[in-house]
Design a protein that fits this description.
Number of helices: 2
Strand order of the largest sheet: 1-2
Number of strands: 2
Order of helices and strands: EEHH
Mean pLDDT: 90
Structural class: alpha+beta
Strand content: 15-25%
Oligomer: single chain
Length: about 80
């Protein structure tokens, strides 16, 4: 789900992460990521777990964004 430009919100992500995965042969391996790579790993794992950006926000921010999106949809801007 994409959000229109101008919708504020940020997600805190760890600076370093270590992931465990399997290759095509089923062999386990670990990979460490830092900075942007760590952020990308966390983002993609959220996708795999069905977690949306908006679910990382406080209830207040979530409600404000939902209200703003409803207004945009009502005016046909989204």
């Amino acid at each position: 789900m994409s959000f229109p430009a101008g919708i504020p919100g940020s997600v805190l992500r760890p600076a370093y992460v270590t992931i465990r995965a399997q290759n095509l042969k089923g062999e386990l391996y670990e990979m460490r990521g830092e900075g942007l790579l760590a952020r990308a790993f966390c983002h993609e794992i959220d996708h795999l777990n069905g977690i949306l950006f908006i679910q990382h926000l406080s209830m207040l921010k979530r409600d404000l964004i939902k209200r703003r999106i409803r207004k945009l949809r009502k005016t046909g801007e989204w």
